[in-house]
Amino acid sequence: xxxxxxxxxxxxxxxxxxxxxxxxxxxxxxxxxxxxxxxxxxxxxxxxxxxxxxxxxxxxxxxxxxxxxxxxxxxxxxxxxxxxxxxxxxxxxxxxxxxxxxxxxxxxxxxxxxxxxxxxxxxxxxxxxxxxxxxxxxxxxxxxxxxxxxxxxxxxxxxxxxxxxxxxxxxxxxxxxxxxxxxxxxxxxxxxxxxxxxxxxxxxxxxxxxxxxxxxxxxxx
Length: 221
Description:
Blueprint: H1 2-8, H2 16-24, H3 31-47, H4 53-69, H5 80-102, H6 126-144, H7 148-159, H8 164-171, H9 175-196, H10 207-220
Helix pairs in contact: 3-4, 3-5, 3-7, 4-5, 5-8, 6-9, 7-9, 8-9
């Protein structure tokens, strides 16, 4: 009965568990479903630790390959996405360790390079689009500057939308720890965004400019 149900359902409608079962039975091509289903989530998890685009891509590929090789070990005790994220985070940490080991004097500012891709937001006219793009870029820079411990929690919890229990399980930390880190991340983001705001003294039309403008206009009228 179960086998008939599997065969009658289209690939897109299969649950993660059903896809895993069929891949293990030899339908290797179905693994693509899991990759497409969780590419964004895995990206954000890995991006919580790495900023270089090539490193992120490499780690994601390594994660998928390792997950495929260990697919028989997946026991369905956790969501497949959580199991996948655990592998991804472990791969990202190993890559980060190698990167830092290669730099005897690791520059902490290097993790601020690059932008974190956030979800698209509805846009209307060109002015609104420009404003949204500027705000988005500012937020991405602020997130990129968060320490890894807080950045990955913020990305998984606030951006990807995982619940507290899922984040705790993926990162192997307590739920209370997730809440504390998420709260701290928001506070640091708020401070960072305030610091990025244009200063009040920017683009001041000073007295000399004012005098010159008045004189020029008065000469023309």
